[in-house]
Amino acid sequence: MKFQILFSVLIVLLIVNTPNSFSELELFTNSKVYSPAHTLQVYGKGLPEENLIIRIFAPDESIAKFDQITTKPDGSFNYGLMTWPQPSTNLPFGTYAVEVISTQQNGISQKIDVKFSATTDLVDVPVERIVNTLVFAPETAAINNPIRVFVQTTSDGLLIGNEPAELLGTTHVHLPSGISIPLSNSFKTLHQGLYYVDYIPREEGTHVFHVVAFTQGTTSHGSAATNVLSQDLGGISEQIIKLNSILDETSEELDVLKSEIAGFDTTLKRASVQIDENIGTITESVKSITEASSQLNALMLPIIASIGLIVALQVAILTRRR
Fold first, then answer.
1. Residue from 101, 108, 100 nearest 19 by CA
2. In 10 A of CB 50, how many CB atoms?
3. Contact 83, 40 (CB under 8 A)
4. Which tens digits make up the pLDDT trace of 310-320?
5. Is 53 helix (H, G, I), strand (E, B) or coil?
6. Cα-Cα-Cα-Cα dihedral sign, residues 188, 190, 195, 199
7. Are residues 114 and 29 in contact, defined by beta-carbon separation less than 8 angstroms?
8. How many angstroms separate the CA atoms of 114 and 44, rounded?
9. Tens of pLDDT along 230-270?
10. Which percentage of the chain shows pLDDT scores above 70?
């Protein structure tokens, strides 16, 4: 009895899963390379009378065309998706992805890459997706000071990528000590295809930023190096400017001191000359005083003698009167 129940359940499960086991979806294009005015024809097979979504992704991963079709009773489809226009900023030359999505088979899909080019020669125009990654980092920085590193991701000249954590998931920085630090969750979006990360270096030496971009099965690498110093060039430049200013002020002070010393030397010379002149004048004055003293003595002696004679006469007269 239990065996019959288990067998019945197994039969039911097989019946439920039968559509998925026989699910099918095929996609083909009438060419691999297209030029302007050529028609992109898609064909293939799905389930009978199934609704299919057909999309064209531009090189920047934006949707360039979106249509919905229904397969024939036998499940086949053949549809002219678009006629390629002249290249423009919205539809430039490059690698495009054509995708068909089933609406009844659990959303399964098929993709084909095609090339939009000026020529349809397969030899000259290989159908391949090329992703370029550019990294912009400052040449020098100072330890413990934040720096900003920019990353640009392009495909066929168009900016690509949306979520940096997925696009740049394995990006890291190599430190001078030999270890590496992941930066996968540190990037911020500036614009589609343009990202940046703020990083604070903790070691002196060369830091190498290794950026790895992965999109639609294609990997691209880019790197840039920053030399981390104990002080950045801006601080050194400011110190040099300050030193130059101090040197200029010192030079000016030395010039003033030199001029003052020159004036002082002239003053000393003048003072010496004046002292010599004053000494000569004093010498002449002493001579004059000596001569004047001699002349005074010559004048005073007769006067003193006369006074003495008069006093003697008066004394004689007074004596006689008595």
1. 108
2. 20
3. yes
4. 777 777 777 76
5. strand
6. negative
7. yes
8. 16
9. 876 565 666 677 777 787 778 777 777 777 666 666 666 77
10. 80
